[in-house]
Amino acid sequence: MSSKITSIISIFIFILFIGCSSEDGESGNCGEVIDVSFNVYSSTSLSLTIKAGHNTGSFKIEYGPAGFAKGTGVSITTLNTVYDIGGLIPSTSYDIYVTGICDGVENNAFYKLSNVTTRQSRCAGNTELDFFQFNPNELILQFLYRDSAPSHYEVEYGLAGFTLGTGTRISTVYLQKTITDFQMDKDYDFYARTFCSPFEATPFIKYTYRTVVPCPKPTNLRSNSIIGLCDSPDARKSIGWDHQYGSYQNFVVSLIRTVGETPGANTITTGNNGEILHGPFCEWIGFYVKANCNGGSSSEWAGPHYF
């Protein structure tokens, strides 16, 4: 009887030992990264697929240029077993370390990928950006990229001197993009780039543009004698000008008698882009003109134009 009891106790202890050994073994694998595969799918991005051991909750990924010292690279923590790394440099080799995290504790063992090289960039050219403002409230951006058919364009803008990354960023698949959220008569910086594919982009190119004033002054002032000499009552002289954009109510013409005379006196108001002067008008040697626009604003004086 004593022998049977001893045997039963021995079997129980053996089973208990096996169970504990199994649990300890699983605990030892907790957080261990077993394998990492990768796919380099562009010149700036790659994808990692991680295979981990028992109960791994998350992963720490650290990467940097090939040969970098572990602990000095870019670190990311993720719950996903598939993870994309972007923002890499084309034609560059990277080392990648992956460790598992179990119950908030990082495993001492790491899995290393060495000399993972990104593809050569297909984005070799620069993005050209032109500006057109036919309306003071709208600015048309026109993109041009000459090296290939792009995926899309991207631009970030703000008042001159802003830091890239803090401005307004927009993208478009079209050659033109109209923006309206800007102040008039201000300098703006624009950073433009082209995506040759959804994941590959050219470097940003900076452009600066000054938005137009709300009521532009007239341009191309001109005059022409139609008939007779200036001292004749029947004499006629035409004066004219152009208006670039926007809606105007009328124009104010200021005739001057001497060189250097400032505008403001001897005025004529007209709703046309020109006026006919009736003789005699020998005392007048030239004119200024300004626009009165809708909304109550007025342009600067344009001129003088001398006859």
Number of strands: 23
User: What is the string of helix and strand elements?
Assistant: HEEEEEEEEEEEEEEEEEEEEEEE
Residue runs with pLDDT of under 50 for 5 or more positions: 4-28
State the fourth-level CATH superfamily of the largest domain. Answer: Immunoglobulins
Indicate how many domains the architecture comprises.
3
Protein name: Fibronectin type-III domain-containing protein
Organism: Flavobacterium lindanitolerans
InterPro entries: FN3_dom, FN3_sf, Ig-like_fold
Domain Fibronectin type-III: 32-121
What does this entry look like structurally?
- With 307 residues, the protein is mainly β.
- It folds into three domains: 31-117, Immunoglobulins (Immunoglobulin-like); 128-210, Immunoglobulin-like (Sandwich); 219-306, Immunoglobulins (Immunoglobulin-like), CATH 2.60.40.
- It is 9% helix and 49% strand.
- The chain is built from one helix and 23 strands.
- The protein has one helix at 2-29; strands at residues 33-40, 46-52, 58-65, 74-78, 82-85, 93-102, 105-106, 111-117, 128-135, 138-144, 152-159, 168-172, 176-179, 187-197, 200-201, 205-210, 219-227, 236-242, 248-256, 267-270, 274-278, 286-293, 302-306.
- Strands 3, 4, 6, 7 and 8 form a five-stranded antiparallel β-sheet that branches.
- A hairpin with an 8-residue loop joins strand 3 and strand 4.
- The longest helix has 28 residues, at 2-29.
- The N and C termini lie far apart (136 Å).
- The model is unreliable at 4-28 (pLDDT under 50).
